[in-house]
Amino acid sequence: MTAAEGTLSRGLAARPLFIATIFLGSFLLFLIQPMLGRMALPTLGGAPAVWNVAMLFYQAMLLAGYVYAHAISRMAQRRQTIVHLAVFAVAALTLPISLAELGGRETLPPMLWLLALLGASIGPVFFVVAAQAPLMQSWYARVDDPAAADPYFLYAASNAGSLLALLAYPFAVEPYLRLKEQAWLWSGGFVVLALLVAFCARRPARDPVPAAEAAPPATWHERAVWTVLAAVPSGLLLSTTTHLTTDIVAVPLLWVVPLALYLVTFIVAFSMGGAIFVKQAKMAAPILLLLLGGYTFLAQGVFALLMALTNLVLLFVVALALHGHLAERRPPPSQLTDYYLWISLGGVIGGFFSAIVAPLVFDWVYEHPILLVCAAALIPAKPLTKRIGALWKGRRGLILDIALPLVSLVASWWVHTELILGDRAETAAPALGIIALAAVLSIGRRLTFAACFGALMLALGGWQAIAISRIELARERSFFGIYTIKADGARLIRQLEHGTTLHGVQSLIPDLQSEPQSYYAKGSGVAEAFAALPKISGRFAKVGYVGLGAGSLSCFAHPGQGWTAFEIDPVVVRIAKDERLFTYISRCTPDLRIVMGDARLSLAKEPRHTYDLLAIDAFTSDAIPMHLMTEEAFKVYAGALKPDGVLMVHISNRHIDLQPVIAAIANDMGWTARVRDHTPYDPDLPGIDYSRSIWVALTPTETRMQDLMYAGGAGPAGWEMLRERPDLQPWTDDFASIIPVLKQQ
């Protein structure tokens, strides 16, 4: 056997070991992310932006790991091994993983506090595991002959591990293991990873290639290209997730799907044989951007599931085209760690834009169409035909580069005025056709195509979205979501929407403005409870409710009662108290006490046995704040209630059946529970907007429950026993899963 054959043989023998090491490292990285999120829920609350900020933290730590890997990759192999295993040993001192005790929750901005919490909790172990993918590939390039084996295929193994962990946690780990068991399982995996790294270090290895023989370093222009090609898909991943879950359809676990597709694009782009799929993605991406991305501004609430599917298809194809182009530009193995460092930096930049900058700057998910336009400017497509390509030769091409975007922009405004504002499709169609033709002709001229594509989105709802943003008080955005206030002149009502979920309605007719609407209509479970309250608790009853909304519950108040609202979002408080928008609070409880912060933490600080009635109404755009539905949370509620108090829980939800969850907790606590599923009579009159609602009442004794049912007016016939699931354990901070209670759609 020749020396070259021996080198290749050693490389092939080492391949399974390095694949296993990289696979396990990435698996652990993506397993710890949702695991820590579950640990942090009782502290963080159910904010929808938590996931995006957490993703930014993971990307930043990944960058730190890649910088570290790049820094030590130039050392001799023995020194690298000593340094890296020493870092492993230091990180292992923080095991088993757990949530850090961190103050400043009330003083720091939510984003900064969350980043600090994640860093203090898993920073060391995440850092060392994050370095695995580039460092192990660098080691493998020294074991194997770079001319005979391309180490970049290991990047596909890395993303495969990430994908498997992403899918395994909600379906195979969370439903069967408690958090403590999950933490020990992960810690065991960390130890196994350290052992695998030690075995990888024992493989015969060459020292780094001497500088005189190594490939020249990448230019700063090339590094900038790597960064941008990674940044746009990263930002698009988060913007797609936000767009789907706040403006199209709020389905539990939907955030898993965009991230899974994003990881698959990396697997395909860097796998052997992936080039053919990348080529097809580059051809399809411009057309799909026009056909699917053009309707981005019109997606809210219209054909929700179909629009969600089209957004996912668009994310996959665009990310595959860009990641494929990124893979095509990969440098020789000697520059591998430098390459991954700049890819990681791009991921951080994209994540920072979507998670931090956009919520502060925009009042809607404008980052999504912006990133789609950026993608259109980056995809290296070719003209659809040679004849079209010939149009762009010479001076004629420069003229078209200027003329087509200008014509498209003017036509987009015409479409807006005729179609969106005037509902005159017949006069808007020619202008829309001009934009489409300009965009199709400009495929292959990336900046020109991006401009025409942007004009198409402006035509189809973009101008209207911008107009709404310019209207005072029409829309606001915070860390906790996007709020839209809509006045329906025909029905004479004003609505507060949080994403896709209605969070409050008030009549515009003066005589009806003190009558609660939507989920709080006469005959609803909460209306019955408030009607019974003076009879069972006296005229000076104390009332608390979680989730301010538009302040609708305030108008159930009676003179002499003391009312307290618990709300986590200052923007909601500002909306509810602004008399130009909603007047429930000013009319009915002008002295309402409002406690800011996460309700569970705030209630735990309240004097014990304060409230006669406590209402929990804190769902966020159909998402479940799981930390408010655990046994520990219900014990907090019980501590805040008087010994004979009443707990009301709003569980109206399109996707999750919470009756068995509450039934299991009530049985475990020894409480009595009933549910009222109320569909009110809708008279279809102006100023009235009633909605079906499902409210659960819980009391310490059956006697108190009977008092509530008879005093409220509906009687026992209006309340039913909760559906129970004998196999369902009560949710706790340590163990909970929504998989068993998902409704069949």
TrEMBL record:
UniProt-recorded name of the protein: Spermidine synthase
Classification via NCBIfam families: MFS_SpdSyn
Alphabetically ordered keywords of this record: Membrane, Polyamine biosynthesis, Transmembrane, Transmembrane helix
Keyword presence, Transmembrane helix: yes
Naturally occurring in which organism (per UniProt): Sphingosinicella microcystinivorans
Membrane-crossing segments per the record: 12-37, 49-69, 81-99, 111-131, 152-171, 183-202, 223-241, 253-278, 285-303, 309-327, 339-362, 368-385, 397-415, 427-444, 449-468
Keyword Transport: no
PANTHER family: THERMOSPERMINE SYNTHASE ACAULIS5 (PTHR43317:SF1)
InterPro entries associated with the record: SAM-dependent_MTases_sf
An individual GO BP term: polyamine biosynthetic process
